[in-house]
From TrEMBL:
Names of the cofactor(s): [4Fe-4S] cluster
Name of the protein in its database record: Endonuclease III
Family per similarity comment: Belongs to the Nth/MutY family.
tRNA processing as UniProt keyword: no
Role according to the record: DNA repair enzyme that has both DNA N-glycosylase activity and AP-lyase activity. The DNA N-glycosylase activity releases various damaged pyrimidines from DNA by cleaving the N-glycosidic bond, leaving an AP (apurinic/apyrimidinic) site. The AP-lyase activity cleaves the phosphodiester bond 3' to the AP site by a beta-elimination, leaving a 3'-terminal unsaturated sugar and a product with a terminal 5'-phosphate.
Residues reported in the UniProt entry to bind [4Fe-4S] cluster: 183, 190, 193, 199
HAMAP family, alphabetized: Nth (MF_00942)
Pfam families attached to this UniProt entry: HHH, HhH-GPD
EC number of the protein: 4.2.99.18
Amino acid sequence: MERILNALDKEYGTEYRCYLNHETPWQLLIAVIMSAQCTDARVNIVTADLFKKYDTLEKFAAADLKELEKDIHSTGFYHMKAKNIIACCKDLVEKFGGQVPDTIEDLTSLAGVGRKTANVIRGNIYNEPSIVVDTHVKRISRKLGLTKAEDPEKIEYDLMKVLPKDHWILWNIHIITLGRTICIARRPGCGQCFLREDCPGREE
């Protein structure tokens, strides 16, 4: 584990970075809701105009459902996403005084927010050590032999046991980068991977 973390730190650095463009906590929350089954690059294209049109939380809460669906259409699953965004923003305004909460319990009480989204917010906004299990983290953590679980929440707890807390947020950042550049799902570049020697799931 120590060799893997040292190699990742050396290759990608230890700076926290978020791939979704945002200026406020609520903008990040909306962007993460839209990122389900959609690339961060596509979400960033959509939010560039979206956050100008709806420049306050209250405007999102009062948005017309059909109009918002058109605005976010290209992110896919736009019916459910638009419905969740409006309901989520209403709760933020009415129940949380316009503030994005910082606990798993409060965050997951919001429409469209599961543990993954809650942990993105906790890690990026509140710097709370948290492990985000997306498709890259699930696939590569299993490949590295760090978990055998399929359920994201079980994977999250398995990783908590083996990763030092100061690498909980970094694990997601590093593994997403690795999954997009080298350990690509359809064609993993095992021959060029700097974790090859410590990866039991490597292809010969």
